[in-house]
Amino acid sequence: MKELSKKMSLFTESVIRHMTRISDECNAINLSQGFPDFDPPKPLMDRLAQVAYEGPHQYSVTWGAPNFRQALAEVRSRQFGRQIDPDTNVVVTCGSTEAMMAAVMTIVNPGEKVIVFSPFYENYSADAILSGAEPIYVPLYPPEFNFNPDELEAAFKQNPKALILCNPSNPCGKVFTYSELKFIASLAEKYDTYVITDEVYEHIIYKPNVHTYFASLPGMFKRTVTCGSLSKTYSITGWRLGHVVAPAAIIEGIQKVHDFLTVGAPSPLQEAAIVGLKFPQQYYDELQSIYTQKRTLFCDGLDRLGIAHTKPQGAYYVLLNIAEYGYESDTEFCEMLTRKAGVAAVPGSSFFREPVNYLIRLHFAKSDALLNEALTRLEKMPAVMKR
Question: For the chain, percent helix, then strand, then coil, each to nearest 5?
Fold first, then answer.
């Protein structure tokens, strides 16, 4: 038999989903894959119950139901400070995963380069490889995960087609400051580079940090592809509703790629989710308050246990330092932690280009009771995980 595509040897299966499977096998607390264990807002569930009987149940327009795109356009118009046309600036996708894939495939030719900050969400490398692109990795330095301006410009000097920007960042929780974004924008303009943003954690921000939409910066809408999702904002990761907002010329290409990737997102879920897009500001303030409390609960608990960790500025992930346990493989550590302590984490090496084997990622998008139980189990780490 002829060999498979050489691309298959360039990346692995998702380490995050791999850890979820091990967690399920061990009946562990799954702090690896970032989904909540609490219900979506009641108005969304009530509307979904109605839609189950009223419909629609057939294909919507390929690039999104008109009323859903209209609701998305209204939201983004307010956030970007410009008029977003639901017909020419918006495509609805099957989650932000497809949104990112469609964006990279639309913009980048095989052999062209894409800048990726490290650490990065694991999909970005796969997006680049499947598109035939070459990633250029630029490190973010802890504890604030700032970039070195000279290193970033050196990456731009390699003539990349695009930069991928995750803000707030998964896995490190960095929220890029306005001045940092303005510097990136100046380089994008200087070197004629597109910016593909992943902003799925846009509403999970911890004060005093503030989220700035890259497309809202002066002159940047023309070269920005904004990828978003309802998954994290409304706790509906299983609904798989993402979207892309971009200039019409880019959207025209993304429409074609999206059509042949997935045809369209689920029509009944689009109908039900419109309710969430019309929530008042109070909902987002309460969401921020809920996650701020969960961050405090989890990080304070880790402090009491004497476990070194990062404190995110946004999103809901923490990186734990496991250097003291003496494992050469962070993957082995995570698998053993799941089996011995009953808590599932993700090895940090799946997010970093740099050789990292002493960091693991956990998330705190869980009920307070489950987070407290997870902390109780993590207290066992010194006893069960030492080499």
Answer: 45, 15, 40
